[in-house]
User: What shape does this take?
Amino acid sequence: MSGMVVFAERRRRLAAAGAAVAALAGLAALALAAVSPPAARRANAPADEFSAGRAYAHVRTIGAQTHVAGSPASDQVSRYLVGALTEAGVSVQAQHATGLDTKDAEAVAAAQVKNVIGMIDGTEPTGRVFLVAHYDSVQVGPGGSDDGAGVATVLETMRALAAGPPPRNDVVALFTDAEEACLCGAEAFVKQNPLATQGGVALNFEARGTRGPAIMFETSRGNASLAKAYAQVPRPVATSFAVEVYRMLPTDTDFTRFREDPRFTGLNSAFIDGVAAYHTPQDTPSRLDRRSLQHHGDAALALVRALAGADLSTLARPAGHDDTYFPALGMLVRYPGWLVWPLAILAVLAVAAVAWLARRRGEVRWTGATAGLGLTLVPLVVAPVVAQLLWVALVAARPGYAEMIDPWRPGWYRWAVVALCATVLLGWYALLRRRLGPVTLALGGLGWLALLGVVLAAVAPGGSYLTALPALFGAAALAGALPVRPPIAALSVLVAGGAVAIVVLAPTVALFFPALGLAAGGAPALFVVLLGLALLPVLDLLFTPSGAARTRRLPDGAPAQTGRRRRSLAASLPAAACGLLAIGCVTAGLATDRFDARHPMPSQLMYVMDADTGEAHWVSKENVPDAWTKQYVHGRESLADAYPILEGRLATGPATTADLPPPRVTVVSDATSGGERALWLRLIPQRPVRLAYLRVEGSPVVRAVIAGREVSTAQRSRFGVLFHAPPAGGIDIRLVVRPGTPLTLRAIDGSTGLTGLPGFRPRPPGVGIAGDHLSELVLVARTIQLKSQSQAGGGEGPGTGPGQP
Assistant: This one.
């Protein structure tokens, strides 16, 4: 009879364990679904709604062909934008200007730009809302997603706004030029356009892939009011941790130009999955997931309606007042930034308190707790390392991955990383559980979560919630479960604590995989392990499914149990199962993610030629050139002195000299006065190009004016100008240098396209063009010696006129 009672009790506990695991798995599925894009609306959706079907018609037109800044195709797109805005009843204007980027210490970047601007006047404006997207593409791709999706989002949003009642505030649609080149369209607007004089709220719409949810990943400082507004959009996907990470990265978008200007506040959104097509010929409209477009548009329309009716004069808070926020089951949880440190400290105190309580109850010893905390570093370190080693192994098995951030079809591989993390964590737990006890290991996991919450509070405050909240609620749950009997009742308390960890961390794992790619798989792996550590009290069910493996402790704290070998074998089964699952996922990934014509292996190749010497080279940025690229490159060298655009040691090989004319430099005027020599130079490409470069050496440049824009020179002895989308008549460059010193001018221009060059053979099916701004670049260079004015002659043109900058 007693055996039947025990059997029934074990069945009840097993059922409770199964229900707990199912509940947490279901919650995880809901948390992940909440950060997925919604279904796309068709073109016949109500006029006041955003329709991905209507917006996609714009994407098809914009992404029909490559339209790099300054190209005839770019002019076609700009005319299309004017027509679409006019048809929607929006007033339109164009801005022709020169934009600058002066952040590079070696060269000032500039571009001739044509911004297209649409505006809906407000009835009682308190400010302006700017919807921003760039309409230029990279030099090798049609830009269906980047940024055709952003442009279509703004067009469809403006149409919906114009179809409704007039907004209170002015709403401006800004389609910038030359974003891919130098953010020059945005810079020209912010610095020169009268509409930017009073500043406002800038909402930028980008894409770094072809699918996934639209993520609000960057804000200006003092984002509390904007975060509050964004929390009201449908299915908000945003995390303050992404803002912290992005602020540390050297990556820029058009939003950078608005963020840097104190007159503006705002935020930046993008979808980021499907990065294999990013900046490549495969970024076509057909690859764009219309659900991502719908998510982009739903957020844009809801946000602009809220801001268009708000008092914008009180929107921005002073710098330093950022909110913490994260997605949770379709909502945006947010709290003020001043709570970051109190919550982080409270989490540490909570873990310390539950450790003290466990010690009072005889569950742990201080020596064991210290050992548990130290040994918890093992999975925290090993799992990310294993994830990185997986990528190394994948690259070895499929070398084409070497130049990729993420494979074309990364799904199976991502699950493999999760399974490997589970293998490491469960294997570690199985080895130590019997020696240290489940409570000790749970405290070790919660302790590291709490400590990391403090670290993040110091270095990335917007990310502290990721570990501080799971530690705080996990400690509370463990404290509540320790005195509870029977075990089934304690289980419900532990599940409640684990639920918080899932809601907080599961979306982070899902978003980090596309954000960083498998090439940096250690980062999402770390968060997988952190989630596992937070769930250790519930994961213990995998090792005691009956609910209570009876143990007695010897005086030294070592467990004594019967059937040790059998139970050790059973304890290793969860880790073994996860290991087999990881192997299966990797196998499935290798079987499904193969290179083909639609999913090509990326390859990067360029051609450079010195017109003075007739020497030419094939050049590649590939770290390990693939079989196709190896036809052209055989060694490595630095070409930065001859071609300053090319940095670092690159793969090179000899090439046949092509019949390509070098750029000309005409000296329009050369005059010396008051101890300064004023030069007016004109750099004139002799063939269709997308960029031109001029380097000046021999004398410090005191002042410079490029195409009418004065730039800071800091009196550098080496001064360069990189001009994108140069006008057909050439680029005017006015310099003031010290007199009496000869100058050396290095002139370079660059076009796109290797077809027709001697020795070039087209790529075979399955080999594509890498998503790099220098891919397919053809550079032609020459050197000009410009004598001092006291010497005879110099340059390629007359030296008359004052030519003062």
Remarks:
- The mean pLDDT is 91.
- The chain is about 40% helix and 20% strand.
- The two ends are 103 Å apart (CA to CA).
- The first strand starts at residue 91 and ends at 101.
